[in-house]
Amino acid sequence: EVLTGRITLDAMGNFSPVMRQARGYRRPEGVCMVVGTCARGEWVDNSYGDLIYSFTPIMNDKQYFWEAFPSQDLHGSKEESRTTYMFTYMDSDKRRPSMASMFEDYLNLLPEYPGAKGPAGQVPDVS
Question: pLDDT for 49-93, tens place per residue?
Fold first, then answer.
């Protein structure tokens, strides 16, 4: 069955029946892989945020982009919280790196990312 309309709003992503139909039920050709963490404590600097920030060269056919912004701690803590993401766009070839390897890159790069440093230049301990 074909879906038609003057305006259609679809926020379901890759699993949307509308997108599956538009792709002819083929697998997506590209993906956006995202890893990240939330941090809290006195060292968090929420005086600014990053929407799209990149500080590394292309590595293994991937360009990493970063986002960081103040967030609310859903566990009841009154300490400052900060959410940090690293993401990249790539084709969906099965030979691409796994989410686990990307998260390892994230943990290795996080201390170098300016958006994860505290007001006095403190870096997160990822050990």
Answer: 898 999 999 988 889 999 999 887 667 777 778 899 999 999 988
Q: Which of 2, 114, 8 is nearest to 53 (CA)?
A: 114
**DSSP letter at 59?**
B
Amino acid at the residue 102: M
- The tokens describing 96, both together, are 């691409």
The model carries a pTM of: 0.76
Can you tell me the distance from the alpha carbon of 111 to that of 117, in angstroms, rounded to the nearest whole number? 7
Contact in structure between 126 and 110 (CB atoms under 8 Å)? yes
Closest by Cα among 122, 52, 48 to 89? 52
